[in-house]
Amino acid sequence: MASGGETVVEMRGITKCFGGMFANDDIDFDLKRGEIHALLGENGAGKTTLMNILSGMYHPDSGEIFIKGKKVRIGSPRESLELGIGMVYQHLTLVPTLSVLENIFLGTNRKFLLPKKEAEKRVRAISKKYGIDVDPHVEIWQLSAGEQERVEILKLFYRGSDVLILDEPTSVLSPIEIDDFFAVLKSMADAGKSVIFITHKIEEALFISDRVTILKKGVKGGEIDLSGIDIENEGARLKEKIVGMMFKDASFSEAAKEESRKISDRVVLALDGIVAKSDRDVEALKKITFDIHEGEIFGIAGVDGNGQKELAEVIAGQRKVESGTITLNETEITNRSIRFINEMGVFYVTEDRIEEGSVANFSLAENAIFRCYRNEPFAKSGILLNMDRIKNYCDGLIESYSIKAQSSDTIVKTLSGGNIQKLILAREFSYCPAVLICNKPTHGLDVMTMQYIRNELKAQSEKGVSVLMISSDLDEIKEVSDRIGVIFKGEIIQILPNRGTSKKQIGRLMLGITD
Amino acid sequence: MNFKRIAGTAVGPVFAILSALIAGGILLLIIGFNPLKTYSQLFSLGVGTYLGLTESFKRMAPLLIMSAGLIIVFKAGIWNIGGNGQFLIGAIFVGGVAPLLVDRVPLFLFFIVLCILGFVGGAAWVTIPAVLKAKYQINEIIVTMMMDFVAINFSSYLVRYPLNAQPGRFPQTILIPLEKRLPNIVFTEIHIGLIVGIVVVILAHYFIKRTTLGYEFRFAGENKKAAFYAGVNIKKVIVLAMLLSGGFAGLTGAIDVLAIKGAFQAEWNPGYAFSAIPLVFLAQLNGIAVIPLAYFFSFLSIGGEFMSRAAEVPVFFVQVIEALMLIFFGVSEYLKKRSKLFCGF
C-alpha cells in the first residue's frame, strides 16, 4: 500500500485536559494518503478524545494541527468536514425511519427540493467505486449493523471526505461482516482515501493497518510501521511488543477454556419449544429447546439480532411466551411475573446497562437494591427502607468488585461504563442465583475489566450457578463456555461441546451455514 | 457537606424569587407605579400586619396538601394536572354530605369521616385517567386536564340542583354552623388545616424517600424500562400514584370547606393546583422545601390582595410575579446545566 504518500494529517503535541486529568498529553500523530492507520489503546486511553479534536468536537489545550501541510484551527465538526475529515462514531447516528438516501441528505442538502435523482446517481457511483453495496431506497431500520456502518461511510464520501475516522467500527459487526468491512477499507485505501481506525483489538489493528499508533493513559505508547512486515510469522512477537506498550502490567494470557470440567447431570433450567415475538411483533424465537445443567456455562453464540435479547427476556419473565414451556428446578415458570421468576433464583444481566440495567440519576446504593429492596434487612417489614443497611451492603459490593466510585451515595451517571457494568454484575451475582443470564456482559469494556468479568463468571459456575452466556464475541464464548448453542434467525441450530469445536466452525454456524 | 447540598439546591429558587421581584419592579415602573413603595406596601401588609400573617398561614394549608400529592405523582413521572377538578369533587362530596352528618356524629368523628370522604372523592375522580393510563397508555395530561372541565360543570350542576340549600338564592350547599368548623390552633386564628398540611407534606416527603413503595415510584419515574426489568409493577405505580395525588387534592377541598367556606358554593374554584404545580417545581419536588415556599406563595397572594385594595395595583400583579419566578427558575436550571457542561466532562 502507498505508505510513502503525502502526509494529509499531522497533529503535533496535542494536549487536552478534562477537569485536571490529562486525556491527551503531548501526542504526535500523522496520517498519509492511502494509509490505514490504527489507533490502538484501552478504553480511556485517549483515542476518542484525540480524534474528537481532529473532527472539531473539542479544541486542544495546546498543540498544532496541519491538514495537507497547512496549519489549521478546527473550530467545529462542520469545519472539519469542510477540510475533508469525516468521523463515524461508535454509536451510529442514522435516523432509522428514513431511507439511506434521505439520511445522506441530512445536513448536506441546502436546496428546498431534494435532488433525489442526481444524488442517487452519485451514491450509486460511490457504492460501485468502493464496493459498498447498499440499496439507497431501503430504510435504515431494515439494515444490519454492518450495512448501517457502510451507510455512514457512504455519507462521508458523499460529502467529499477523504480522511475517515472510524471509532471502534467492528464492535457491532459479526465475524463475517468484519471480513467484508475490511475488504471495503482496503479498497478505499487503494483508491487514495486515508483511514484512521480506532480500536482496542490488537489482532484487528495488525490485520488491517499499515501503521499502528498506541496510546496508553493519554500518552503515546509507541508507533509501529507494519509495511513490509510479515504478520503471519512475526505476529506473535509484535503482539507482545504492543501489549507492552498498551499496558503497564503486560502479563495477561487469553487461554481458551479447553479443559472440560465435570458438570453435574442435574438440569436446572429447561426450555422446551419456546416461541416468542419481538417488539416489532414478528416471531423472534422459533421453537427454542435446550437445557442447562447445574454449574454449567452455556454459551449462546450468534450474530446480533437473531433473537438473543428476546431469549434472555423470555427466561427472565420480561417477554411473553407464545408457546412452549420454561422449567426451573422442576417448577414451571412460563409467563410468570418478573418478580416471581427472580425470587425463584433467576438473575439477568441485560446488555443495555445504561437504559435498562441501571438508573442514571439514582445513587449506587439505590441501584444496588433493584432485586432486594422489599426484603429484610433492607426494608423493615417490606415497607420502610433501611438506608444504613443498604449503604453498608453497597459499600461491600464496591469493595469486593473494586468498583471505582467515591461512595455509595455517588450518582451512577458519573461512573464509567465499565464500573456501571461491575455494579450490575455485583448486584446480580450477590444472591447466589440459581440461573444467571448474561447478555453481552463485556461489550465495549476495556481488556482488564473484560477479563475480570469473565473470571467472575467462571467463579460463579464453580459455585454451582448455571450461566446462560449470550455473546457475539466468539473469543469470549470460547473462553468461558462448557457447551455452545448457536442461534440463527430465532433458532438454536446446533449445540456443540466447547472442546474440540473450532471458532471457524461456530462462525459458519452463526451465519446459518450447516453442512 | 449536607449544608452545602441544601445551599446548592436553594440557589435556584432564591435566584428565581429575587430576579422575579426585580423584573416585576421594572414592570411596575413601566406601568407608572413606584416599585419601592409598592413592594414595601406588599411586605408591610403581608407580613407586617396581624391579619396579613394570619391569612397567609391559612392560605398555606391548601397549597401544602395539594403539593403533597403533586410531589408523589410527579416523582413517579406522571403528570396529573387536573388537581383543580379533583379538588372540586372532594369539596362537593364534603359540602353535600356534611349537613347529613353534622348533628348526628361527634365532632371529632365528623371531621375524620369528611376528610376521608374528600380524599375518596378526589381519588375517585382521578380513577378514570389513572386506569386509562395504566391499561391503554392514554396520555394522562390530556385526560386529567379535560376532566377539570367536567368536574367544574358536574359540581356546578350538583350545587345548583340536588344539593342546593335554598333554591332561588345564590346556589350553595347547606352551611355548616360556625361552631362545627375545623378548630383553630391554640392562641391563633389559624385553623388546624395548616398543621394537617405540614404533616402531610412531610409524610409525602419521607414516603417518597424512605419507603419501598416510594422507591418504586421514583424508580418508575426515573426509568420505566429499568423499573420493569427490576420487576416493579408499573401499572400499580401509575394507579397508586395518581390515586394518592387525586386524594390529596380532594382532601384539600375537604379542609377548605370544613375550615373556611362551611359550604360548597357555585362558581367557586380557587385553582390551588395551578399555584401548587409551580410551587413544587420551585421546590424541586422536595417536601421540606415546599413548606417555606408555600409560605412565600401565600404571602404573595394575600399581600397582593390587600395591596390591590390599598395601592390600586391590580391583583393579578402577584400572578405576574409567580410566572416570572418560574421563568427565572428555568433560567437558573439552564445556567446550572451549562456550568456543569463546562466544569466537568
Describe the protein.
The complex is a heterodimer of chains A (515) and B (345). The longest helix of chain A has 16 residues, at 175-190. Chain A folds into two domains: 7-246, P-loop containing nucleotide triphosphate hydrolases (Rossmann fold, 3-Layer(aba) Sandwich), CATH 3.40.50.300; 267-510, Rossmann fold (3-Layer(aba) Sandwich). Chain A starts with 6 loop residues before the first strand and ends in a 5-residue tail after the last helix. Helices cover 32% and strands 26% of the residues of chain A. In chain A, helix 7 (202-208) crosses helix 8 (231-246). Chain A has 16 helices and 22 strands. Chain B has one domain: ABC transporter involved in vitamin B12 uptake, BtuC, CATH 1.10.3470. Chain B is 76% helix and 0% strand. Chain B contains 13 helices and no strands. The model of chain B has no long low-confidence stretch (mean pLDDT 92). Chains A and B meet through helix 10 and strand 18 of A and helix 8 and helix 9 of B.
- Work out the number of β strands of chain A: 22
The fold-level CATH name of the largest domain in chain A is Rossmann fold
Quote the distance from N terminus to C terminus of chain A.
38 Å
Largest Cβ-defined interface? A-B, 32 and 19 residues
For the sheet with most strands of chain B, the description reads:
none
Number of strands of chain B: 0
Strand order of the largest sheet of chain A: 6-7-8-3-9-10
Mean pLDDT across every amino acid position of chain A: 86
